[in-house]
Write a structure and sequence with these properties.
five-stranded antiparallel β-sheet; alpha+beta; globular
Length: 179
């Protein structure tokens, strides 16, 4: 549990600092995380980490995933939905509702999955404010039914996340097959 903040950069810094302190060094970020914000948490957020080598002081739960061709998986992920404006190097726009299904199909397809079904919640905007710059990113929480097509790419996506801004807690896929 970490203190909540309206600035996603603050949460990013807290996660990075906590993992670095427990490791005793600032190694390259080899983990992803997701953030659960809920009114019942009273000013705190719950952070879930995933990585190949997390510090031993972080409570862990061993959970292995297998990615065999044809396996059906139910997953949830909060994914940044911004699109780069053609011809503009650093300019982005929100994806339109009519673009979302095809974009999500293409995104998971590049990561070894075929999209069978998807539903998404209301759009959110997260503020990121760091030295000299401030911006916000649009995101949606997607619940997806996926079929494994390429096991190597699917396993990599599971470990490393999908989409943009993973360093700010977006893109971590969670298995909800048992829900």
């Amino acid at each position: 549990m970490l203190p909540d903040s309206a600035n996603r950069q603050d949460i990013h810094a807290q996660v990075y600092s906590a993992v670095s302190q427990l490791r005793g060094s600032k190694l390259e970020r080899d983990y992803i995380y997701s953030v659960l914000q809920h009114p019942g948490l009273k000013g705190q957020v719950m952070v879930t980490l995933r990585g190949q080598s997390l510090p031993k002081d972080i409570p862990t739960q061993q959970h292995s995933q297998t990615f065999e061709p044809g396996r059906i998986l139910r997953s949830r992920a909060e994914i940044v939905t911004m699109a780069q404006i053609p011809g503009e190097r650093y300019r982005y726009r929100d994806r339109r509702p009519d673009e979302l299904h095809q974009w999500l199909t293409d995104l998971v397809g590049r990561h070894g999955f075929a999209l069978k079904d998807a539903v998404w919640g209301n759009p959110k905007r997260s503020r990121i404010k760091r030295a000299g710059t401030q911006f916000s990113v649009p995101s949606l929480s997607f619940t997806m039914t996926l079929e494994v097509v390429n096991p190597v790419d699917a396993a990599s996506a599971w470990l490393n996340g999908i989409g943009r801004k993973k360093g700010y807690g977006f893109g971590m896929m969670e298995d909800i097959s048992d829900e």
